[in-house]
Amino acid sequence: MNLKQEKIKKICCIGAGFVGGPTMAVIASNCPDIEVHVVDISKERIEKWNSKDLSKLPVYEKGLDEILRKTRGINLFFSTDIDLAIEQSQMIFISVNTPVKKTGIGAGQMSDLRYVEACTRRISEKAKGHTIVVEKSTLPVRTAHTIKSILSSKNSLNNKKDKTFSVLSNPEFLAEGTAINDLQNPDRVLIGGEDINSMMVLENLYLNWVPANKIIRTNLWSSELSKLASNAFLAQRISSINSISAFCEVTGADVGEVSKAIGKDHRIGSRFLKSGPGFGGSCFKKDILNLVYLCNYFGLKEVGDYWQEVININDWQQDRIYKIIVDKLFGNISCKQIAIFGFSFKSGTNDTRESPSISISKKLLSEGAFLKIHDPKVKTSQIVNDLAGYNFVENYINHDQSKNQGSWTFSSDIFTASKDVDAIVVLTEWDEYKNINWEKISINLRKPSWVFDTRGILDSSSVKKNGLNLWKLGDGNLIK
Ligand code: NAD
Ligand code: UGA
Q1: Per the CB 3.0–4.6 Å rule, which of 148, 201, 248, 471 could disulfide with 255?
Q2: Ligand 2 centre and the CA of 280: distance in Å?
Q3: Geometric angle at alpha carbon 421, from 417 and 423, rounded to 5°
Q4: Best substitution site from 95, 139, 287 to test ligand 1's pocket, by max atoms within 8 Å of Cβ?
């Protein structure tokens, strides 16, 4: 069978998450002749994807609702009927979660592949004819070998002799908050594989909207490793500039100016050089941990140590920000009210996974502070999960925080959030915080009061003009 000639009519994606949902929506909108099924074991998630009210989608991404309006129910379908989708699809994307293992061998570092293995076994059992299986999840190098072993096992094949599989690696590089644009205009599409016919089938699918010169073909292992290495390189740049931010603070340099000067060198480039409270998000840390584990597994301890340091600097950056806040507030924040501006790990998303706001808030709470948290997109229920173990106070007006140390409340607007606080800590770079009316807000704070700008986004002169003390990350001018 020459698959190059075969026209793909039906594809499915197992895993309707941050990647599966938007990726398949973009494929459906660019390939109207292909029927796209997105399936998941979570009934609740699928119901949200099928919700008539598009504000209830499980993922908030700019432009996603518009695409769904044009594709859902036409050539894009969300369901929990995984077996049927597998049976009917010529190409199956695996886009399930690959978290860090919590227990056992490699705990805290290695990827937990139980979800990948579960759907591979299901594909092995239910697929019909020739099926192209595409790794979309981020996986340890050589996972394709495991997938192939399961798919070719006698157990699954003995009933249906005409069943064949081809495994490809096609990692996803979208960033949250810009997912639709990243999918629509990718820097590159990576297709790793051994079977050129299957690689061409996937390439032809992308060619519906991606220019040919952006599609890169590699062997399986290069493709799997390139995904881990890409995330490691991006995170490394952030740790590099964050290490320099601390250096600026003690020398009189300004990290914004240094970053601009470095980035003007085309060999370095200007992106991913913004210092801040450290990288968050579901993947950078987990993927580097996975890389470190693999380095050690293959006997490359020095290489593993090198990448581990990227994580160490990230943790250190969050720790030092917390210590600076405590230090500026006279070394004591017990029973003091502090406003946290921003809880998502970056602007443009409601995702809080590995958000620096979580670790910094927990450290402040452990000192007995009362936090008034604001975020334009994150829901209170999410923060309750993230700050589990610390007391959530729904109605803080009559709340006596002197009796209840280490507690927090949610404020739906920044004016309420800043009422009577000793400090405002800006942790996410939401536009709303860039244009704060400091004249209005400053009246709210208990004096002397501090503003901690960990993203370097505030109008410094306006903050200071209104009688507030300012600490800005990486700003050595403050030592003068
Ligand atoms: P997610 O947790 O948002 O979604 C994964 C989905 O898979 C969940 O809905 C879960 O219910 C489902 N699932 C798990 N096991 C299943 C099974 N056996 N059958 C059917 N469904 C199952 O995860 P995500 O953020 O979409 O990430 C998926 C993968 O993509 C990960 O490997 C991640 O590293 C990678 N990735 C994520 C991003 C990102 O921005 N989030 C970007 C690039 C790559
Ligand atoms: C990142 C990568 O950018 C994607 O290419 C990749 O597909 C994805 O991880 C993944 O594999 O999950 P994402 O985590 O969604 O995407 O968001 P980024 O824009 O990369 O930001 C990550 C973190 O770094 C955020 O906390 C952000 O605030 C921080 N960051 C980013 C900085 O502190 N400085 C910068 O200059 C850039």
Answers
A1: 248
A2: 7
A3: 100
A4: 95
Q: What residues contact 431, with CB distance under 8 A and at least 6 apart?
A: 347
Residue nearest atom 13 in ligand 2 by C-alpha distance: 175
- pTM of the model as a whole: 0.96
Alpha-carbon span 3 to 218, nearest angstrom: 19
| 195, 166 contact by CB (below 8 A) | yes
Containing 476, the helix (H) or strand (E) segment is none
The parts of the chain modelled with pLDDT lower than 70 are: 1-6, 155-161, 398, 401-404, 479-480
Q: Phi and psi for 26 in degrees, rounded to 5?
A: -70, -40
d(CA 307, CA 328): 32
Taking alpha carbons only, the member of 377, 372, 373 closest to residue 352 is 377
Which tens digits make up the pLDDT trace of 25-73? 999 999 999 999 999 999 999 999 999 999 999 988 999 999 999 999 9
Ligand 1 atom with minimal separation from the 138 CA: 32
Q: Which of 13, 31, 283, 295 is catalytic?
A: 283
Q: Does residue 13 have an active-site annotation? A: no
What SS3 state is found at 191?
strand
Which tens digits make up the pLDDT trace of 189-231?
A: 999 999 999 999 999 999 999 999 999 999 999 999 999 999 9
Q: What's the token pair of residue 461?
A: 């002169």
- Asked if residue 351 lies in contact with residue 58, where contact means CB atoms within 8 angstroms, the answer is no
